[in-house]
Amino acid sequence: MKKLLHTNHFAEMLRFGFVGVVNTLVDIGVFSLAIFLGIPRVFSQVAGYLAGTINSFFWNKHFTFRDKDHTDILKVMLFVGVNLVSLGASSWGIFLLPLMGMPLWLAKGCVTILSLAINFFGYRWLVFRKK
Q: Which residue, 70, 80, 104, 111, is the most exposed by fewest CB within 10 angstroms?
């Protein structure tokens, strides 16, 4: 455990957590606004997720993983791929969980946690991996 606390990976995890909180606030803010405006929940999920994703790429590249590589086209494509997987999983969840009786906001919390896990490991191992 001591070794983990003193590694660059732990610092990345902390920065990812901070960026994740900001992304989640952006996501929930856009999602809530869309729901308030009467947009169906799956489309609201997509809108919120996309807003958080745009924010996420910038902050994770420059702050979390401190990526200095300028070959961003491949990174953007990988980032989009990871986020499409995450978006698909979260959209199915936000559609299915309320149908199974889960309150919408609890379902939103569950799919947010699922997305967080998919995104961290996808970003760390695919998008911003160290050479």
A: 70
- Do 48 and 35 meet the contact criterion of CB atoms below 8 Å apart? no
Q: 53-68 burial, b for 16+ CB within 10 Å, e for fewer?
A: bebbbebbbeebbebe
Residue 76: phi, psi to the nearest 5? -65, -40
CA distances from 128 to 62, 91, 116, 131 (A): 10, 25, 16, 9
Among the listed residues 130, 119, 57, 55, the one whose alpha carbon sits nearest the alpha carbon of residue 82: 119
Q: Look at 121 and 68; give whichever has higher pLDDT.
A: 121
The per-residue pLDDT for 7 is 65
pTM higher than 0.85, yes or no? no
Token pair listed for 41: 């929940």
